[in-house]
Design goal:
By secondary structure, this protein is α+β, with helices and mostly antiparallel strands. The protein has 2 helices and 4 strands, in the order αβαβββ.
């Protein structure tokens, strides 16, 4: 993804037919950009947990996810 935006993440979820059995992990900078875009679009209201189309969006604290990349995590054990 060139830049992580609300529209780009929505399209990614739809195009990849993701379900609530996964979560998306983002680089901290990409996560911050997405949250700001979400807040601008939704009038400064952020739900907890942070979800887009039912998919939880997480911030990667491990350093494993590069900026502007999406990591898909299985949430079903």
């Amino acid at each position: 993804m060139e830049k992580i935006t609300l529209d780009a993440v929505r399209n990614f979820i739809i195009d990849n037919e993701l379900t609530d059995s996964v979560a998306i992990s983002l680089h901290p900078d990409s996560f911050d950009d997405l949250v700001m875009d979400y807040l601008d679009t939704n009038g400064l209201k952020l739900e907890r947990p942070f979800e887009i189309l039912g998919i939880e969006i997480l911030q990667d604290f491990t350093g494993a996810v590069p900026k502007n990349q999406v990591n898909i995590l299985d949430t079903v054990e």
